[in-house]
Amino acid sequence: MLRPRLRLLLRAAGLLLALLTAGPVLVAPAPASAAEPTWVCRPGMPGDVCTEGLDTTVLGTDGSSRVEPAAPDPAAPIDCFYVYPTVSNQLGPMATGDADPEVQGMARLQAQRFAQRCRVYAPLYRQGTVPGIFLGGFTDATRQAAYSDVLAAWRSYLAKDNRGRGVVLIGHSQGTGILRRLIREEIDPVPEVRSRLVSAILLGGNVLVKKGSDRGGDFADVPLCRADGQFGCVVAFSTFDETPQDATRFGKPPTTTDRLTGLAPRSDVEVACTNPASLAANRDADLTTLMPTRPYPAGFIALGLTATYLGVVPTAATPWVQPADRYAGRCETVNGSNVLMLRRLPGARDLLQFPDAGWGLHILDGNIALGDLLRVVATQTKAFESARATAAATPAATGRPRVALRTTGRTRRDARGRRCVSGRLTVRVAGADRRDAIRADFRLNRRTVARDRRSPLLTRIAAARLRTGQNRVDALVRLGDGRSRRVAATVRGC
C-alpha cells in the first residue's frame, strides 16, 4: 500500500487535473497555426534554453560528490531535432503553440543536455494538452494540427538550416507519435533525406516493428539500433520497474486506433525495445541517470516528478545532477509488454509509477538513461562522420545502374489469343540498385505520366490510357550517387 504521504501527492495530482480541466473550454476551436515555424530551442535564438550551462554534480552512493564540467558545443558536427511530449497545462484540448513555462521546462529536462552533442532545434507546436489526455482530446483534428506544425518546422529546417548535416531526431510520448509519422512519410521513403539520419531516439511512444524483425512496422527501411556505432537507426523504449498491467499504455501494440498516431491496429507487429546501455547484447546493464536541477514549472509534470521520486527530486548546486540513486535495466517482455525493465541497485529509491501503474515510469523515459543516450549519439556521430569522409574520398560510382522496369496488371486474351493488359497497369523500378534510386520520371508512349521521388518508385496507369496493341513504358531513373539510366518495357493493351 502507498504511504499516506504518497496518497496525498496522488490526491493533489487529481485535484490539479480537475482544476486544469474545469469549465467548457474543452470545446474551444483549434488555434490557428503560425505563419512561420516558431521554436523553443534554435541556434542563435535569444532565450534558447538549450544553450544554458551543463555542469554536473555526480553524487556517489557513498555520500561523496564531484563536479564534472560540461557545456553546449556550438561547433557540434550534427544537429538534433526534438519534439516534446504532452506538457501543456492550457485549458483546452489543443495548446496554442506558445513557449509556455512548462514547454521550456520540458525542453530543459529532455533536450538541453543533447547540446553537448548537437545543435538543438525544437519547434513549438499546437499539441494535445494534459487535460486532453484524460478527457478524450486526442482526435484526428488535434493530431493533424500538431503534425502539420512539426512538419512545417522540419521542412523549414531542411531548407534553411540543415545544409546536408547529419541529424538525430528525438521525441517522447506525443512527440514520438509525431516523429513516427514524420519518419514514415518524409524520411524513410526518401533516400536523399534518409542518408542524413544519424539516429532517431523515440521514447515512450510504442514504435512498431514486424514480429521477429527490426523494421517493417512503422518504417520499411529504417531499422532498430542493434550495435554501437550503427547509424541511420532507431532507439526506442518505455520504462517500467514493475510488471506492466494487462491494460498498460506502453509496450503492447494498440488493439484499437492508436491514440498517438491515429493508425489502425495490426496483428503482425510488436513494440520495439532497445537497451541504450547495451544495444547489441541487451545485458542487464547499469544506467546513467541525469536530471536538471532547476525546478520544473508548476503543473501536472512537476507534481509527477515529485511523486515519482517520493517527494524529493534529485538536486545539486550545479545545473545538472547525476543522482545517487542507481538503476540497471534491460529490455524484457513481461506480461506481453516489451519494455525497458529497471532493477534498483543498493540504496536507490523505489520509484513511484505516475499517474498510475499503467504508465510505468513514463515521466522519466528521457532521463533514466540519458547518459547512455548521450554516449550512443557520440558513438553514432563518430561512425556517421567517418562513413561520410570515406564516401567523399571514394571515387564517384561508375558503371550503368542496375535498374529495370517491372510491370504488373490484370490481363486477358485478345481476339488472336495474345495476352494483353485489361486493367490498371502498375509500373515500378526494380533491380539491384533500386533502393539507391531517388527519382523516376515515367513516360507512356513518350509522354510523361508521372514523376516519383518516394521509395518504392512506381506509377499506376489506367487501362484507358493504353493503346490497343503495343505500348512502350519507360522511366529515367536517378540514383543518389548521381548516376542515371533510362529503362523501358513493352506491354500490349487490349
Number of helical stretches of at least 4 residues:
8
Contiguous runs where pLDDT drops below 50 for at least 5 residues: 17-29
Which structural category do the helix and sheet elements fall into? Answer: alpha/beta
Sheet-strand content, in percent, reads 25-35%
Q: In whole angstroms, how far apart are the ends?
A: 76 Å
Q: If you compute it from the alpha carbons, what radius of gyration comes out, rounded to the nearest whole angstrom?
A: 25 Å
Task: Give the spatial strand order of the biggest sheet.
Answer: 1-5-4-6-7-9
Question: Would you report the number of β strands?
Answer: 23
Overall mean pLDDT: 91
How many domains comprise the coordinates?
Answer: 2
Proportion of residues in helical segments: 10-25%
Shape category: elongated
Main beta-sheet annotation = 6 strands, mixed
